[in-house]
Fold this sequence. Notes:
- The chain has 297 residues and is of the alpha+beta class.
- The protein folds into 3 domains: 3-66, Beta-Lactamase, CATH 3.30.450.20; 71-142; 151-295, 2-Layer Sandwich (Heat Shock Protein 90).
- The protein has 7 helices and 10 strands.
- The protein has a 5-stranded mixed beta sheet with strand order 5-7-8-10-9, covered by helices on one side. Strands 1-2-3 form a 3-stranded antiparallel beta sheet, sandwiched between helices.
- Strand 7 (212-218) and strand 8 (222-229) form a beta hairpin.
- Helix 3 runs antiparallel to helix 4 (112-142), helix 5 (155-169) packs parallel to helix 6 and helix 6 packs antiparallel against helix 7.
- The two termini are 43 Å apart.
- Adenosine-5'-diphosphate (ADP) binds next to helix 6 and helix 7.
- Adenosine-5'-diphosphate binds next to helix 6 and helix 7.
Amino acid sequence: MHPEDRERIRLIIEDVLDKSKSDGNYDVEYRTVGVEDKKIRWVRAMGKAIFDDENKPMRFIGTVLDITAQKQEEFRKNDFVAIVSHELKTPLTSMYGYIQIMLQNANESKDALSLRALNSMHGQTKKMIALIKDFLDIARLEEGKLQMIKKPFDLHLLLTDVCSELAFLSSHAIELQDCVELTVIGDREKIGQVMSNLLSNAVKYSPKGGKIIIGCDKEEKQVRVYVKDKGVGIHAKDLPHLFERFYRVDNEQIQTITGFGIGLYLSSEIVKSHGSTISVESIEGQGSTFYFYLPCY
Length: 297
Ligand code: ADP
């Protein structure tokens, strides 16, 4: 096994042999180094530990598959996405600036038709910029270059900003509860990105409307931030995979809703860099609640 993957896999195997943590399930990807040819290959190892009546591990059954070709394809795809995103960023940002100037002009001249069109362009361009930003951050994340600048900031102000931006783009009722006077420690911009992702998902996956609640529960030295919707919900079988890169739920109800399956992956990596994890509680057909913790004063 490649030395850089050993510790990660060792920790996973520890959990696999602990029934309460993993139920014995094992599914990992890592690199190997050929004993003779010294070549690096990627493998996917899957298996299951079997436990006795006292939950002691007795046996392990599994398979190992060479996925080198698939991985190389994935790396090429990632490089391509990163290059395209990088090239699109500058022209999009400049378009966004011009739209803002034109919006101001249309406002002053009270040109209703231009105002409507420009408002829509403004919203759509903003969405494109957010998507490009997510793609660029994923590329940085994979190179280990996604930096967090953690400082104390006012959570209420950030959440109000994120809510008002989204209210501009959607007609869903959004309510902010119990988040006043909370100073948290983290990267304000990145946590804003996580909240935008969670909120825009809440809107996107509630096609029939329904109130969206953003709330905060203060515990001793941390705060639980949550986003709750009354949308389509998520089937239990999909829950363990939601935060995987490019994972999208495949069901008829949301077939027409577009996306790339990167928002939750990126959000969960950002939250992990803050020493926390994103969790979800959901009942299919009734709605979902996504939440995570942040340290606070
Ligand atoms: P995208 O929305 O671009 O597909 P995400 O990573 O944001 O990507 O979400 C992954 C998947 O999780 C989505 O395809 C969707 O099926 C599911 N999902 C995310 N948020 C919600 C939500 N609030 N309600 C129901 N399903 C959701």
